[in-house]
Design a protein that fits this description.
- The protein has 563 residues and is α/β, with parallel strands linked by helices.
- Helix content is 26%, strand content 19%.
- The chain is built from 17 helices and 18 strands.
- Strands 1-18-17-8-9-10-11 form a 7-stranded mixed sheet.
Length: 563
């Protein structure tokens, strides 16, 4: 590693090193990784621009957690492990300063002193860290066995069976008037009622206005209007269709039914079996029927698909070095022979939103940006993706940080901002949500903004278990059922967020935490991030899983780590 390259890396971020600090960086086992991690820590802590004029060696030691002289003399790279959070250290193997920086940048800094009450806390009082068992079993670090040869720079002659099944980029007809909103909810109700009416229990469902006094049992297809809890702890749900409203009580004494009622959210469409009371506008719930999904048959595939999201190019906390390692791997130039063999089979790469960090997405974002121009951010993204071998088709959908409208469905990233990406021959753009067919494998791409609303609305849901959130969206057959909360939804004449057709793969992002589950034969994938912990995540105690890349390789899930 040349002196100029190290100094330039810090200079680009507005950081100057003292001679002592520079020596500590250049003498690290892997200077480039050590420099990148140190930059992230310096930028994420409470350092002013004045503090960064000349970073001292003492500051470097403090940030890397070095307290013993023996640690200075044992900077060895941590050997890769095929499990998550189960690294075994031997006398010949110690954690490098880079590894320590990774630990400190993904956890809030502990206060130096604790109050007497805090001292009484036991380990058992702390929340248990969730571990996705499938990711734990399949995860493997891509090893540093880089080989040198040029990627394929010629145009590919690979034949793709690629189809865009759903893209709403040029289908926005809303004017924002009340009539549009009515048409939007009518579209949602009719689409989901059509799915529900195929269930045996609901084939002869009754409209609310047609409820007869002689009826004892009711079968209804309704939209949830309001949810409240009675003074006795029961759930009372106000339901409606296009003819009227009815309130249904779900008793807490029926534990299984009550648990289903606890997951209800406003504006979703469900089926309800209920016993009518003397008041024709009130009933006692007996069963909740969600639209749901049938098991999909497994399809044969002889290729691989890579899933990315939330790369956040342009952010100070973008993990550039890890992303470069990923590009080297997908180009078959990095990793073990077996890992490169998987890369050779990759035919498609899907990026599910937030490829760049954007501009003005949240207050004071400019203070956390390395690139403060949106077009330059996309230009930088084009430089990275342009280095991926040309026989891989890249599909890009927008997220809430991209230069697309915020309201969902989001049209594809406009060419006026991302012209450099549009000039790449192997890149395709699609809306959020969007559906593509990759050699017969149907992939539903949704960035995942509605996860924010589900976590707030249902107490058992958490960000780190996004596989359960994805499963719930499939049961509800809608990607963003709650209208008017954190997720901005455009009142189009048609509701494009209804899951009309069941996919083979549901790919999401947004929350920066990798997750995987197989539900009724459907691969549920959240592809994590290439960004370290943000200030928002620190406040909400969300620990991201950066630089971990999911792959469906010949029908099997694989999980590769690049950090």
């Amino acid at each position: 590693m040349s002196t100029n390259k190290i100094l330039l890396k810090f200079a680009k971020k507005g950081i100057n090193l003292s001679p002592e600090a520079y020596n500590k960086v250049i003498n690290a086992e892997n200077p480039l990784d050590f420099a990148s991690s140190l930059i992230v820590k310096l930028k994420s802590d409470k350092f002013s621009s004045k503090d960064l004029v000349s970073v001292s060696g003492e500051t470097v030691d403090e940030l890397t957690g070095k307290t013993r002289k023996s640690e200075d003399n044992n900077q060895k790279t941590l050997m890769p492990d095929n499990t998550v959070d189960k690294k075994i250290k031997t006398p010949q193997q110690t954690i490098t300063p880079t590894e320590k920086l990774k630990q400190t940048t993904t956890q809030p800094k502990a206060p130096e002193k604790k109050s007497s009450i805090e001292n009484l806390k036991k380990d058992s009082d702390l929340p248990e860290k969730h571990v996705n068992k499938i990711i734990e079993e399949t995860s493997e670090t891509v090893k540093d066995e880089k080989i040198q040869f040029k990627r394929n720079l010629n145009k590919t002659n690979v034949e793709y069976d690629f189809k865009i099944i759903q893209d709403t980029s040029k289908k926005s007809y809303t004017s924002g008037e009340l009539e549009n909103l009515i048409a939007y909810f009518k579209s949602r109700y009719e689409k989901l009622a059509n799915i529900l009416s195929k269930r045996p229990e609901l084939r002869s469902y009754t409209k609310i206005a047609d409820i007869d006094d002689s009826q004892d049992s009711l079968s209804l297809i309704v939209m949830v209007r309001e949810i409240r809890t009675s003074k006795n702890g029961h759930k009372i749900v106000e339901l409606e269709d296009d003819t009227g409203t009815i309130s249904v009580l779900f008793s807490q004494n029926n534990e299984e039914l009550f648990a289903e009622a606890e997951k209800l959210v406003r504006d979703e469409v469900i089926g309800v079996i209920a016993n009518k009371s003397d008041d024709r506008h009130f009933a006692f719930g007996q069963q909740i029927i969600f639209p749901g999904v049938l098991r999909v048959p497994e399809k044969q595939m002889d290729f691989g698909i890579v899933f990315l999201s939330d790369v956040h190019i342009g952010s100070l906390t973008f993990l550039e070095d890890a992303f470069l390692r990923f590009i080297d791997w997908i180009n078959c130039e990095f990793g073990t022979e077996e890992q490169r063999r998987v890369a050779e089979d990759i035919k498609y790469l899907i990026i599910g939103g937030d490829i760049v960090d954007g501009i003005g997405v949240y207050p004071n974002q400019d203070q956390e940006l390395a690139i403060k121009d949106i077009t330059q951010q996309y230009n930088e993204a084009a430089k990275f993706l342009g280095n991926i071998r040309s026989d891989i088709k890249i599909i890009i959908a927008p997220g809430n940080h991209d230069a697309s409208r915020v309201a969902e469905p989001q049209p594809a990233v406009p060419e006026e901002y991302a012209k450099a990406l549009y000039e790449l021959d192997n890149v395709e753009f699609i809306s959020n949500p969007g559906v593509v067919s990759l050699d017969g494998i149907n992939v539903l791409i949704y960035h995942g903004r509605s996860f924010d609303d589900l976590v707030m609305a249902v107490k058992e849901f958490t960000y780190e278990k996004s596989d359960l959130l994805m499963e719930e969206l499939l049961k509800k057959r809608h990607l963003a059922p709650i209208y008017g909360e954190r997720t901005p939804l455009a009142s189009e004449l048609e509701d494009y967020l209804v899951i009309d057709e069941v996919p083979d793969i549901l790919h999401t992002g947004h929350i920066h935490v990798n997750s995987y589950r197989r539900f009724n034969g459907i691969h549920l994938i959240n592809s994590g991030t290439f960004q370290t912990q943000t200030s928002f995540q620190k406040i909400h105690n969300i620990e991201p899983t950066p630089a971990e890349v999911p792959v469906i390789h010949k029908g099997q899930y694989k999980h590769f780590k690049f950090i």
